[in-house]
Amino acid sequence: MTDITGIRRKLEKKLKSERYEHTLGVMYTASSLAMRYDGDVKKSLLAGLLHDCAKFCSGREQIQLCNEYQIGLSESERKMPALVHARLGAYLAEHEYHIHDREILDAITYHTTGRPGMTLLEKIVYIADYIEPGRQEIEGLTLVRRAAFSDLDEAVALSAASTISYLENAGRDIDPMTVKTYEFYSKK
């Protein structure tokens, strides 16, 4: 049995306090969404708790760790280091926190960009990260929060659209997987 309390203690020491508070918010939001959609509450707690476990260091250091651990990165991840923590986080969840459930590891891997055809757990963590109570108010957040508890697929489409819009307006690169996620869920 996985020791959630032990993992929490480790993360509290490893992450900056704001990141740790965000992590707890995602963990509890994910468990609430799991209850709403008859998902696995324990898996949701674990995936939410560990989703940002690699954010204890800079993007450059995350890339170095990926190279060291031989974790393959996409071209987008190399261009946009803010994405790297998801793939590295799944690796750390498995190797440092001893999570071997592929569904939890995939939820961590795809919590930033999403992907077409996500599992329930992947959608839960993706949305929980976006809507957790401590999240800074951004345009469209209220709509995503409202949709999250009535239509999870709609919430995914709204979240991906909001992310794309934000990145476009900021003149930043957009990961192609986020676009694919939007396209897939906006047609449902």
TrEMBL record:
EC number: 3.6.1.41
Catalytic activity from the UniProt record: P(1),P(4)-bis(5'-adenosyl) tetraphosphate + H2O = 2 ADP + 2 H(+)
Domain HD per the UniProt entry, residue ranges: 19-134
CDD domains: HDc
Domain of life where this protein originates: Bacteria
Keyword field: Hydrolase, Iron, Metal-binding, Nucleotide-binding
The UniProt record lists the keyword S-adenosyl-L-methionine: no
SMART domains, A to Z: HDc
Listed PROSITE patterns: HD (PS51831)
Class of enzymatic activity (EC top level): hydrolase
Keyword presence, Metal-binding: yes
The protein's name: bis(5'-nucleosyl)-tetraphosphatase (symmetrical)
GO molecular function, one term: bis(5'-nucleosyl)-tetraphosphatase (symmetrical) activity
